[in-house]
Amino acid sequence: MSATAGAGSGATAGAPAPRLDLSRPSAWRTARNGFASAFMVLSTLLAVAPLVWVLWSAISKGIGSLLRASWWTNAMDAADQAKWGALHAILGTVEIGLITAVISVPIALLTAIYLVEYARGTKIARVISFAVDVLTGVPSIVAALFIFALVVTTFGSHQSAWAASLALVILMVPTVLRSTEEMLKLVPDSLREASLALGVSKWRTIVSVVLPTSIS
Questions:
Q1: Which domain, by its residues, includes 99?
Q2: Which backbone phi and psi does 122 adopt, to 5 degrees?
Q3: CA dist 185 → 62, 82, 127, 215 (Å)
Q4: How far apart are the first and last CA of the chain?
Q5: What are the 10-residue block averages of pLDDT along the chain, 216 residues in total?
């Protein structure tokens, strides 16, 4: 019985391997492949065409202004439209960016330090992390509408760089907080333990050991 099985297995092992079928596929498969390829190319062209049109319109209409030195130094309050420039937009962007950074960076850094160094594994840390995850998924238009409804409509304030900065704070704090939190987690616990074993206080360990290590 075993000899017969061995003979059968030997015959199977010695059988030639099946040859790869290199013949041309059927007409139906060729037609389906061509249809799918044409559909993908057409879909790509339909998606790229509006982008190319927008870029061409913006470049063709704006390249002349970019090449004029006065466009970079003039404001938008001139009576003559030909004298309008981008000075307001440039200064406004810099102002909003600075205000947003001054508000967001300290809040995000201090919150990340608290989550990693003081509240790691606690319930309040999980609540804060959940809130940060929610803020991370908030679209920019929703943040802007919230600030407009709260600051401008409810409190009667004017549209200003301060109001725009508050909307950007909602978007910037989660990003900076998550980045800082991940960098702090990369610092080995052995460094913290060594500093604490030498009698260094908790806050001094964070300032002198953890933060300089995470910066690198």
A1: 89-215
A2: -90, 170
A3: 47, 55, 18, 12
A4: 72
A5: 50 61 73 91 95 93 81 73 78 92 94 91 90 89 90 80 90 93 90 90 90 86
**In the prediction, which pLDDT does 87 show?**
83
46 inside domain: no
Question: What is residue 52's predicted lDDT score, i.e. its pLDDT?
Answer: 95
CATH code where residue 182 lies: 1.10.3720.10
Token pair belonging to 199 = 């009698």
Task: Check residue 162 and give its pLDDT.
Answer: 87
148 assigned to some structural domain: yes
Spatial contact of 131 and 177, defined as CB atoms under 8 Å apart: no
Could you give the C-alpha distances from 154 to 90, 144, 159, 179, 196, in angstroms and in order? 29, 14, 12, 34, 50
Burial of 104 (0-12, 13-18, 19+ CB in 10 A): buried
Query: Residues 209, 192: contact at Cβ < 8 Å?
Result: yes
Going through the chain in order, the beta strands assigned E by DSSP cover none
Number of domains in the chain: 1
